[in-house]
User: What shape does this take?
Amino acid sequence: MFTLRAMTLDDYAAVLALMGSTPGISLRDADSSEATARYLQRNPGMSFVAEAGGVICGCVMSGHDGRRGYLQHLLVLPAYRRQGIASALVGRCLATLEAQGIHKTHLDVFKTNHLAAQYWQSQGWQLRQDIDRYSFTRPGNENA
Assistant: This one.
């Protein structure tokens, strides 16, 4: 049995440990405590953790830009997978986004993360073929 609750900055160390131990997840400077605090403040009550037996066993971060929603860092510890935790986390995010008028949500998956790609496709998410994402990083901040 697991419970979901809104993520707080107090969960940062446990979530960072989840991220650091999960293949296919990249930790960047944007995952710092300060950046995470800004994200949680900008998107209050939209990121969640799953707990089972006092252990944070899953997490997801979500937010929006006023038009589109974005999911980031959906993680469930391997020992807790196949219990509906990921689906519950995503469902909570999508319901929270919808309550704010957001009806379309995006996420990014590394091309090498085949397990994540399989999961998202099995959940009805569509791989876009019509766009490419471009990023700009200020010189000197290559790990942003």
Notes: The first strand starts at residue 3 and ends at 6. Helices lie at 12-20, 33-42, 85-99, 114-122. The chain has one domain: 3-107.
